[in-house]
Amino acid sequence: MGAGLAACALYVLYLDRMVVRQFEGRRWTLPAQVYAAPLELYAGLPLTQPALEHELQRLHYRRVALPDRPGTYRLQGDRLDVALRAAHFADEQRDALLLTITTGAGGVQDLRDSQGHELPVIRFEPLLIGSIFPIHGEDRIVVKPDEVPPLLPAALKAVEDRKFDTHHGIDPEGILRAMWVNARAGQIEQGASTLTQQLVRSYFLSSRQTLSRKLREAIMAMALDAHFSKADLMNAYINEIFLGQDGSRAIHGFGLASQFYFGKPLSELDLPEVALLVAVVRGPSYYDPRRHPDRALARRNLVLKILADQGVVPAADASAAARAPLGVGARPSGAYYPAYLDFVRRTLRRDYPDAALTEAGLSIYTSLEPRVQEQAESALERELAQLDRARRHPNAHLEGAVVVTAPHSGDVLAVVGGRDVGYDGFDRALDARRSMGSLVKPFIYLTALESGRYTAATVVQDQPIDVKLVNGTHWRPENFTRQTYGPVPVVRALSESLNLATVGVGLDLGVPKVAQTLERFGLTETPALVPAMLLGAVAVTPMEAAQLFNGLANGGFHTPLRAVRAVVSADGKTLKAFPMHVTQVAAPDVVYELDRMLVHVMDHGTGRPAQALLPPNLVVAGKSGTSSDYRDSWFAGFSGSDLAVVWVGYDDDAPTGFTGSAGALPVWAHIMAGLATNSWNAPMPESLAEIEIEYPTGLRVLPGCSDDRVAVAVPAGAQIPAKPGCGFPSAVTPVGKLLDRAQQWIKSLVH
Amino acid sequence: MSPTKPGTPGRGRLLLPAATVAATLAACAAPAPFPSPPPGAPAPQGGAPNAPGYPPPATPAPAPPPEQPGAPPPRQFHMGAAATALVSQAQNQARAGNYGQASVTLERALRIEPDNPLVWIEYGRVELGAGDAAQADGMGRKALQLATGDPSAQAAAWHLIADSLRARGNNELAAEAEQHAASFSTR
What we know:
The complex is a heterodimer of chains A (751) and B (187).
Chain A: H1 2-24, E1 32-35, E2 40-41, H2 49-58, E3 62-63, E4 72-76, E5 79-84, E6 87-88, E7 93-94, E8 97-104, E9 107-113, E10 122-123, E11 128-132, E12 138-140, H3 151-160, H4 172-185, H5 195-204, H6 211-227, H7 230-240, E13 242-246, E14 249-252, H8 253-262, H9 271-281, H10 293-309, H11 315-322, H12 338-349, H13 354-359, E15 363-366, H14 370-391, E16 399-406, E17 411-416, H15 428-431, E18 434-435, H16 441-451, E19 459-462, E20 467-468, E21 474-475, E22 486-489, H17 490-495, H18 499-509, H19 511-520, E23 539-540, H20 542-553, E24 557-558, E25 564-568, E26 574-577, E27 583-584, H21 588-603, E28 621-626, E29 632-638, E30 643-649, H22 664-673, E31 688-694, E32 709-715, E33 719-721, E34 732-734, H23 738-750
Parallel strand pairs in A: 1-15, 3-4, 12-14
Antiparallel strand pairs in A: 1-11, 2-10, 4-5, 5-8, 6-7, 8-9, 13-14, 15-25, 16-17, 16-30, 18-23, 19-22, 20-21, 24-27, 25-26, 28-29, 29-30, 31-32, 33-34
Helix pairs in contact in A: 1-6, 3-9, 5-6, 5-7, 9-10, 10-11, 14-22, 16-18, 16-19, 16-21
Chain B: H1 18-26, E1 34-35, E2 75-76, H2 81-95, H3 99-112, H4 117-129, H5 133-146, H6 151-167, H7 171-185
Parallel strand pairs in B: 1-2
């Protein structure tokens, strides 16, 4: 008996020590929070008032009559008054402030603070796009007591634990009362556990329901209560408790729950929203407001009734709140971009161990632009559904992937890893390695221009080719049309993606030379140096294809693609920056000459179907890609400010029947059309001259000489044969600089 | 499409007024000065017909005559108010020895005016100050690619390249780069 008591006392003492030690040293594991790029505002930004309002709504700002609380705004004519939240960025912390944005038809005209001072540039806060939590792990955002609306602890006490302020960790009276109330109501209206017991259960114990565990829980709750203040325990409860499940991610604490259900900080929640979270405490799965809105609504209104009955809020407020909708978005709030997060994780895993990412409370600032990401997702989903209908393959679903970049910086603006954009699984943008097909052709012609032996106007032969391979077999490539086209200018061979003409040029240059060009532009593995490489027998992921074309879009400058701009520690120090790196990998004039030809892909060649989908004056450049047997449909192209690569195909590598122009191109065009992007208009280098040639023949012409002309850039002084009877002094006239072109033009007018 | 179109700001989508584009393109006889984008006067070229709330495409600028007489008028880049403010903030950060923050700030400026060689030159100057001469060289060459037609920006880009070469002990090539710079300064 005595020994039993002594053992019991020792056990209590052991639990007491354990609880105190663990709770004092407590540090919640804090998954890294990942943020999108913030929207920069400045006079001249072409976003109209409705577009700006859309941006504010994405950040869950509320429209009000008087914007006096952060997270609210007001519209007054062409004025938009915004109470901006305090925010942290990769490079600075900013306090909350009142901002007045004046807009006109063309966009932002003027930005001022509350004192009327003009602001040259200011940012909205970055959108939280996710967190890096352990597999099957807890995700949370820790809040400090001053970030908690006073209503929340009051409501928790009223609903869960009325004696919280006075009991000693357990509440025998409360247990009896709860039994009585619940019996009378015929449902669980009150729990028997104190908040302290719930905290112990969540923090220290497994969820097994045994009597000995109940006893342990009670002893530990009393121990906690004896050693820590009520305020400390309440704050721990608010940050600890489980409030929802999102796939493998467990939503812990009210800070994250507020973001997860409402997309805004806890401090901005109103009465009905606080009441809903308090309602969810009782059963995050049973009262899941997304899956069981009716149950959640009934339980929330019960919470409101209790709050009114207990005098926590006026009865009139409670009944007004009971009429409010749940206010929970259809899908997890903020945003969920698994393919982009996958890219972020892979970037960071090179530098950080898993534990640093899932526990240390890092902030990760990325280049993701939500507007671009949403456009890319919806274009891919919509167009693949359309293409599936056209294929009439009832059981086969086309798949696709998209990467969008800002060429000048290598910023990756959007990544879509498949048509089910919310699915965190196989990420085709990063992992689907597929033959690049005709996407290789621009790099063959770039190599040709660099050799000095070819220009855009050089006539090449599109004729049958027979290569005897080392194993004794013969390689006899064909054009997609199975026809041959004879003598054609380079610009036409590229625009129409003629295989035979291109292979001829590639063999003339040498396969290794072309491979070197690809490697300069960022191909990491040397491809097999076989003639079939000239038709794109090089496996690349959509991300790698984007890297290669980014150099063409950026005037011959390589910038490594990057998703992460900076990693900032929990105490606000920049731990690692990922600054842009710019390396020149090709001369600007050859790249310009090539890019001008890629513009003709869009008006004369395989990119032509995009014209109907793009704004009429938008100048873009691009290239289709189709691998053998139509297994892969690619399109890679760029405007002056955005590059997009689209891949469409089947996961099992089955033929799709689509060329790049039929499969990937419409997706690409819908993305570009929705971006409000700028025309491609790189400045023409001074070493080049612009001339017009006849598209079918490549002969130099003047206006009025031919109905089918294209303007190409060629090295000044290049000898381009002229079309007879076209007003040129001789059959071969060197291309002059702009001035002597002008004289010729005037002469042609006088004739 | 004409190679004589004005330099464009990109991601930030700060754009030339359509009227200026039209006037510049139509200016055959008397070349108008080639302005860099002034702030506060946007005129989107691309447009987004199916993105509600985004500005509609600008009214089509008249197509340039296919063979346009007259040399392209010289242009002169300027930075808008936003880029100017950010560049001066970055210069202060660099002066305080905070090169990491300075490059973050300069990247903000570049996102607003990615096609403005002056911003690239400022970035290259900061990289040079931070001791990364190779990056400064890359930025100088990028600036040079964009500066076509603006002799003073071309000269400034060559100066940056020359300084970055000198910083790496490549005095011979640096002298060559200075000669390029001088050839633009005297134009």
